[in-house]
Amino acid sequence: MSPARWPSPDRQTLARAALTYLAEPADPALGALLEVCEPAEILAAIKAGTLPAIKPETLPADATDPICPTGLTGPTGSPARRRALEAAFNRWRLRLPWLPDDVGLTSARRDGIRLVCPADPQWPERLDELGAARPYALWLRGRADLRQACQRSVSMVGSRAATGYGAHVAGEIAADLGERGWTVVSGGAYGIDAAAHRGALVTGAITIAVLACGVDFPYPAGHAELFAAIAEQGLVISEWPPGRQPARLRFLVRNRTIAALSCGTVVVEAGERSGALNTARHAAQLGKPLMAVPGPVTSAQSAGCHRIIREWDATCVTRADHVIEMLSPLGTVPTATTAAAAPVGATRARDALDLDSARVLDALPARGAAGTSTIAAEAGVDLDTVLRCLGLLAGSGLIERCDRGWRLRKP
Amino acid sequence: MSPARWPSPDRQTLARAALTYLAEPADPALGALLEVCEPAEILAAIKAGTLPAIKPETLPADATDPICPTGLTGPTGSPARRRALEAAFNRWRLRLPWLPDDVGLTSARRDGIRLVCPADPQWPERLDELGAARPYALWLRGRADLRQACQRSVSMVGSRAATGYGAHVAGEIAADLGERGWTVVSGGAYGIDAAAHRGALVTGAITIAVLACGVDFPYPAGHAELFAAIAEQGLVISEWPPGRQPARLRFLVRNRTIAALSCGTVVVEAGERSGALNTARHAAQLGKPLMAVPGPVTSAQSAGCHRIIREWDATCVTRADHVIEMLSPLGTVPTATTAAAAPVGATRARDALDLDSARVLDALPARGAAGTSTIAAEAGVDLDTVLRCLGLLAGSGLIERCDRGWRLRKP
């Protein structure tokens, strides 16, 4: 849909855009309020300096979230609860001066940036699995249909300080996934994220970078061109409004969206303290398949992957086949195991032998020949058996008769 | 026990020694017979050219083994059963000329080789888990007590065509296991086996090489010195009598003994067709812990390890700690996870912060200073909260007050 054909945003959309300026994503107080109030009503209350016309006791009972525990603690309707709600309004009000004209939508359109809200056709319903921690709205750079792009998608995350090995493997797997019609979702960081995005881009596939800052904010700066390429072919998206800078905790909050957007998450390289493991935890908490790519045990950058495999949290995957198998309904793709069993070398005549024939073949001397009873004794089979097996082996072209008995045929 | 003090072998021991010459190990017909007859009785029957004085219908009902299916098929007491038993006696008789004087025990003693039978104090009772496929007896080179050496032992197996990575990791893990009093059991082959034996040897630990040929037969020839070193410090053992050559199928039959002797098996590197996976299968069938060490997914030599991890047959292990944890009764060793969680870097002051304080710290500019309300808006916290957090952060020495507000302290 070209910017020229965008409909005028309605009141609720404008309010959601404003809320992305005023509150940090996954603010549990706002998440709880949004379950009982319209966005425009909440925005009006923030601007008016009053609480909205709701009773705090109608809010969901547990409005504290593990992602963002500064929530509405205390029993429903308690004074502690009301104080928490007032504190939330106070912090949102502090940012009222940050609200740009037209909540930034006009200048965003000029920069090719658009907003997608929960009611829109392009909203990925998967994000609703986040419950009250669902994004208020998403800012997008790029023309692709977000909902469609997420339909068959894989999150690939890993260490910024990736090794050459990790970057290579991430790129290969992402390219294979892209070629087979899968969207790669990642965080746009250096290292594994960049390798995954680039692997998808080279195959012409859609890839989605989920940033922890405004979609127009080039962080890391060295990735400005990469983000432009992603926006051209896929999508650069964010819960933060244009212009917003990244911050350490924003990456952690952002990770839940990376995990929630896709069908499953693959960790390619992750040290013991890597933020990628935070994304992995979100994927697991959302009940989505979690996968990890192993690496040398001598590499600290694979230690996190090995730990989650070891503790049975993640499935060990080594190629795109395995990832697709994990994410596809049972039976819709040939299993990697089936596929792997066949191609490992051509079946050799030796493999097709029955056990007695294999023993007889083993018993023939490497050089020279041997008589029938010598072969039988060496093979540990009786004479009837040795005769049957020698005939079969000769028929397969593996051995031949000579004047001194039987000998191996040169291949 | 020095050779001079060995007691004279009894009749049953002599018969078991003879059976190792006449039958291949895990011959299901002999396994079945040994459950109802004394070894000496079977040997006498083979020599006399008659069936032993037992009724075939008294033999165990299922005398066919997956390891060696040329067994006593057909219902108990059926003509097919009797024919199978006759064929078995015929194949054993073919080897009667191979029996040396004194069943080789005299010359074996001269070479420092001894025999251990199921009734002996040094017999590892773990081998009895093999049922009818239990070794008839074991030939040993080395002075160590076999039963004691197996008490706390790990089988380490892998590819002969090991990579430098695989050999390094096998050696490291074996050395760590050795240092902590564990015996390493392996197959004496090139590659991973050799690296595992050598890793154990350098720490002065006992290591056991289980060969698929006589313990005096240097196969591979390049390992003659390694075997001498193992015999000096540990044990070289075999089910085959001295002088017997290796054969392809003997390695497969031997593998069940490697798996059965130890508390669990670790595969370090294994291609898709590696014999090490055969040992792994035996370990799993015996209900023993199976572990595998991952490696680069780009290495074919790790493909077998990744497959068994992927399919949940094996636990992913990356160091000796993990192996010991798997093999120790619950609670007797600190778990690797517990041990791993602590040592990853010193706890940083930043990690100890509550979420609001972390947000406030995040909100301080990288350079220069900011005022209280700017920081509060940036952090997304209300003014009361920002004041509490700024005090706490200043108390931790992370930030300091200056004439323009608050700024980060240089570390």
Write up what this structure looks like.
Chain A is built from 17 helices and eleven strands. With 411 residues, chain A is of the alpha/beta class. The radius of gyration of chain A is 30 Å and the shape is elongated. Chains A and B meet through helix 4, helix 7, helix 10, helix 12 and strand 9 of A and helix 4, helix 7, helix 10, helix 12 and strand 9 of B.
Uncertain residue ranges of chain A: 64-70, 335-347
Strand element count of chain A: 11
- Quaternary class: homodimer
Query: What is the beta-strand fraction of chain A?
Result: 5-15%
Distance between the termini of chain A: 65 Å
Report the CATH topology name of the largest domain in chain A. Rossmann fold
- Structural class call of chain A reads alpha/beta
CATH architecture of the largest domain in chain A: 3-Layer(aba) Sandwich
Topology:
Two copies of one chain form a homodimer.
Chain A: H1 11-22, H2 28-34, H3 39-48, H4 79-93, H5 105-110, E1 113-116, E2 138-141, H6 146-151, E3 153-157, H7 164-179, E4 183-186, H8 192-202, E5 207-211, H9 224-233, E6 235-238, H10 248-261, E7 264-267, H11 276-285, E8 290-292, H12 303-310, E9 315-316, H13 320-327, H14 336-341, H15 355-363, H16 372-379, H17 383-395, E10 399-402, E11 405-408
Parallel strand pairs in A: 3-4, 3-7, 4-5, 5-6, 7-8, 8-9
Antiparallel strand pairs in A: 1-2, 2-6, 10-11
